[in-house]
Design a protein that fits this description.
This protein has 699 residues and is α+β, with helices and mostly antiparallel strands. Helices cover 28% and strands 17% of the residues. Residues 542-567 are annotated as: Disordered. Residues 557-566 have a biased composition (Basic and acidic residues).
């Protein structure tokens, strides 16, 4: 689900016009960069109730002269919108939106938390992107070609399929070497100019749109922060203050949330004190009765004193991770599961920490308050937009942005669905001083200085440059199930009074290994992932790579379907110069078949992230044999070395595997990182056996 960082990139891309043609061909200078809004009618019988297009319109007609659509291009918008759209919208409350547009206007884009407002002409749309909603920029001619391919939806029932309209992408928008699945897109809205279109797409169909129409074109002043229209539009979907644009309002909401948490905690403590007082009073009465009957019948004393024990009133569990993800009292606008987990990791807070623990101490709460603003600020910096907000220099608007995806995964995901987290020195020292990396320690208790220093010493162990400011250490990430559903590098025990009973499982599969399944990120949408090149199937083509002339600024890109591009990709992803068989072990899920043989299977989908881009691909059910490697001097050496939590060493695999005559090492690799033994883990060596690439597992 898109979170604050996605919305921030969307606003920056649309405001700066990334991807615009370098040379605009229209001869009407007065209408350049002027847009009008159009909506594609959706049959609500196949959608959820909250995905319907809602409207609020002014009854008066536009006061400005009617727009001549032929100014946007000769015969480009004749009889706009299409008759099929007007027919489907007949009788709906948004039927008037199917009339020809009356005015052009400047494109205005605003963000508030996880909501978006896009205005052009007489319409302004408040948008909640839902699960997979996103906005794609393309040339107007390309948009015309796409909507010309309107087809029935994918439903097996013909009647239902006719109600769910999709658009078939032309072949030129299918990247060579990518998935062979049919390409359909669902378009819900578009903002159209003479040369450029911003289209709202959503494969899952969970996008929500509220449209407000005026009798004049929308202006910047109408959507200024704090204006009446600003509040009216965003309140449709319960918009809450933005931590960057409305910092003061967001802080007020956060402090109201703190007051509510402390008030609830105070009421609970008073109830506990009252329960203890009643119990003590009852216990005194029992002792008095026992003293009264003691002389006549001593045997009855024990039965008189015995009775029901102290029963304390239950406390409402409010783990901080759930408070943030639910946007409790509108204090955490912009957060989702990804940003919430990463933020708590950055603040060195266990996800299951009760909210009152943070709110009780003034210094802790102040640090928490300032941390939210600092955390969101990184997603509005020029560096962030340079890293992940680029647009591929390609004529294909659905080109997968490999650069943006790689940088986002490397720099802007710390613990969420990570197998390991890269921790800086200062952050690691904070974890050590609080004992949060010791599974035998209880959170909140004092931690011995000697143990903390012993943990700190591991940060620079086997490091060539101990004083490097860029030094990081990898720590395993664990998933806490139950009601938390959180990710954290903290392994210390939660106090018993927190009443947290969850299963802690180490994450064994990193988010970067999901391949062609939609996860999170700026480029992680189905329409883009379908165009991600399947490198294991790409073969070399002779000659110089062809340049792609896109007409946009910058250096033209080159075709990526040659052996050089495959080698570069595999070298980056796997650390190998050649990967001739095309098997990526990181994409495999290891399972046992009926005969007890361990096989690696490429997964069809991720349960937490619907919309698998490789659902219909032929390789989705491929299985690769995995030859188990029995006990050897190499494994014995590892087990002898593994006496502490971890070790680091440089090993020559050529010598280590020389005892097995059937094994030929293709390329020597050095293990120069921490290796942790666990019953759920194995160490995979990439070797060549009889000229067939396989994966050896060390038992």
């Amino acid at each position: 689900m898109p979170e604050f960082d996605n919305y921030s990139v969307t606003v920056n891309t649309m405001e700066t016009g990334k991807g615009y043609p370098a040379h605009i061909a229209t001869s009407y200078k007065e209408i350049r960069n002027k847009f009008f809004t159009t909506f594609v009618p959706a049959d609500n019988s196949e959608l959820r109730e909250n995905t319907a297009i809602t409207v609020s319109a002014e009854p008066t007609a536009p006061s400005d002269p009617a727009l001549r659509l032929d100014q946007l291009g000769k015969d480009r918008f004749t009889n706009w919108p299409p008759s099929s759209w007007r027919k489907r919208a007949k009788g709906e409350h948004y039927e008037y939106l199917m009339n020809p547009p009356k005015l052009l206007g400047r494109l205005i884009v605003r963000r508030r938390g996880k909501l978006l407002v896009v205005a052009a002409g007489t319409e302004a749309a408040c948008i909640s992107l839902g699960l997979e909603g996103h906005i794609v920029g393309m040339r107007t001619a390309d948009f015309q070609d796409i909507i010309a391919g309107e087809v029935d939806g994918p439903n097996e029932d013909p009647e239902k399929a006719a109600k769910i309209r999709t658009f078939l992408l032309p072949d030129r928008f299918v990247t060579k070497g990518s998935s062979t699945s049919p390409r359909h897109v669902k378009i819900f809205a578009a903002w159209i100019s003479s040369e450029w279109v911003w289209a709202l797409l959503d494969f899952s169909g969970l996008v929500r749109i509220h449209v407000k129409s005026k009798s004049r074109a929308w202006t910047e002043a109408d959507l200024a922060v704090g204006s009446p229209e600003w509040k009216n539009l965003f309140k449709t979907f319960n918009g809450s203050p933005d931590w960057i644009l409305e910092k003061d309002c967001a802080i007020k909401r956060l402090r109201k949330w703190r007051d509510a948490i402390l008030q609830e905690y105070s009421i609970w403590k008073e109830a506990v004190a009252a329960a203890r007082q009643r119990y003590d009073q009852e216990l005194r009465q029992r002792n008095c009765m026992a003293d009264f009957f003691d002389a006549s019948n001593p045997g009855r004393r024990a039965s008189i004193i015995s009775g029901p024990g102290l029963v304390l009133p239950p406390q409402t569990p409010r783990p901080i991770i759930r408070e943030i993800c639910s946007n409790s009292m509108d204090a955490f606008s912009g957060f989702g599961r990804h940003l919430a987990n990463d933020f708590l990791h950055q603040q060195v807070i266990f996800p299951g920490t009760p909210a009152y623990i943070i709110c009780e101490d003034e210094a802790t709460f102040k640090q928490f308050e300032n941390g939210i603003y600092d955390f969101f600020s990184q997603f509005t910096t020029p560096k962030f937009f340079r890293d992940v907000g680029s647009v591929p220099n390609s004529k294909n608007p659905f080109e997968f942005n490999e650069l943006s995806n790689t940088r986002y995964m490397q720099k802007y995901i710390t613990v969420f669905r990570r197998a390991e987290s890269r921790i800086t020195r200062d952050h690691y020292y904070q974890l050590c001083e609080r004992g949060l990396l010791d599974p035998e320690h209880t959170i909140g208790d004092p931690y011995p200085e000697s143990k903390a220093q012993a943990l700190k010493a591991k940060f620079d162990q086997w490091r060539r440059h101990p004083d490097s400011k860029k030094a990081t250490r990898r720590e395993p990430v664990h998933f806490y199930g139950g009601n938390l559903r959180a990710y954290s590098a903290i392994v210390a025990r939660a106090p018993a009074e927190w009443n947290i009973v969850v299963d802690r499982v180490r994450v064994t599969r990193d988010i970067t290994t999901f391949g062609y399944t939609t996860t999170i990120g700026i480029a992680q949408f189905r329409e883009y992932l379908l165009n991600r090149i399947i490198y294991r199937e790409v073969r070399s083509s002779g000659g110089r790579r062809a340049r792609n002339k896109t007409g946009q600024g910058g250096r033209p890109t080159m075709d990526r379907t040659t052996r050089k591009s495959v080698d570069a990709s595999n070298n980056q992803a796997l650390g190998l110069k050649k990967w001739q068989d095309g098997i990526n072990p990181e994409d495999l899920v290891y399972e046992y078949d009926s005969s007890g043989r361990l096989v690696g299977i490429i997964p069809d989908n991720d349960d937490d992230n619907p919309g698998d881009a490789n659902r219909n691909h032929d390789t989705s059910s491929c299985a690769y044999n995995i030859t188990p490697f029995t006990h050897s001097p190499f494994t014995q050496f590892l087990q002898d070395m593994y006496k502490d939590d971890c070790f680091e060493a440089s090993l020559d695999l050529g010598e280590s595997l020389s005892d097995n005559p059937h094994v030929t090492v293709k390329r020597k690799r050095l293990f120069n990182r921490a290796i942790t033994f666990d019953h759920e883990e194995v160490i995979a060596l990439y070797v060549s056996i009889s000229s067939v690439r396989k994966v050896l597992l060390l038992d």
